[in-house]
Design goal:
Chain lengths: ~110, ~110
């Protein structure tokens, strides 16, 4: 069974530029999460989807971040414009349902904003 | 508020036993999780506790006391490959996972 797939794995951009991350969850998983992990910290939830619906986006900085999950499968997270403080690893995770006890994480995208 | 505390770093010797503690204060409780994360890799699930007591899985065990807001992860017969960060996370009453900052464990030969 394929795991959670993310691309790109690494991205270096200049501040004020846009950037997008892509995630393909495990087949059949209805719930998809985007996390941000700063160096030396634990992951912090940005947004959670149940199928196509964003059910928790309270931690998403909506002035510059946006996300979508069309057709309830793949998801894209976008930052426009990027700031220096956005440098972090962006992790995507999926689970069968929101109440499933195990979340499966992708390898992440390491973003560096210069 | 949400608060999860765990030590920043620990060291141990190959073959030894190490206990990583975690204390938490969260809005609601729907289970406590431990994840392992090797440098540059994704977190992987280790254990889940929702009732008080000890859960054992091979060399790893996890304990929970809900009344004390306390958990620990016990690693036995340490191996070099156990060098990693160990993340304690609590699921709150909205099913959101709140992670601690992680404990970086270094195992020496």
């Amino acid at each position: 069974e394929a795991g959670v797939v993310q691309s790109p794995r690494y991205k270096i951009i200049e501040k004020k530029q846009p950037v997008a991350f892509w995630c393909n969850p495990i087949s059949g998983h209805n719930t998809l999460y985007w996390y941000r992990q700063n160096l030396g910290q634990g992951p912090e939830l940005l947004i959670r989807y149940e199928n196509e619906e964003a059910v928790d986006d309270s931690q998403l900085p909506k002035d510059r971040f946006s996300a979508e999950r069309l057709k309830g499968v793949d998801s894209t997270l976008k930052i426009q414009p990027a700031e220096l403080g956005d440098s972090a690893v962006y992790l995507c995770a999926s689970s069968l349902t929101a109440s499933s006890y195990e979340q499966y994480f992708g390898p992440g995208t390491r973003l560096t904003v210069t | 508020g949400q608060n999860i505390d765990q030590p920043t770093e620990m060291t141990a010797t190959e073959g030894a036993i190490v206990q990583i503690n975690c204390t938490y204060q969260t809005s609601g409780f729907n289970g406590l999780f431990w994840y392992q994360q090797h440098a540059g890799e994704a977190p992987t699930f280790l254990s889940y506790n929702v009732l008080d007591g000890l859960e054992e899985k091979g060399r790893f065990s996890s304990f929970l006391s809900r009344s004390k807001g306390y958990s620990y992860l016990l690693l036995k017969e340490l191996q070099m490959k156990d060098s990693a960060s160990y993340l304690c996370a609590v699921r709150d009453d909205t099913d959101k996972l709140i992670f601690g900052t992680g404990t970086r464990l270094q195992v020496f030969p």
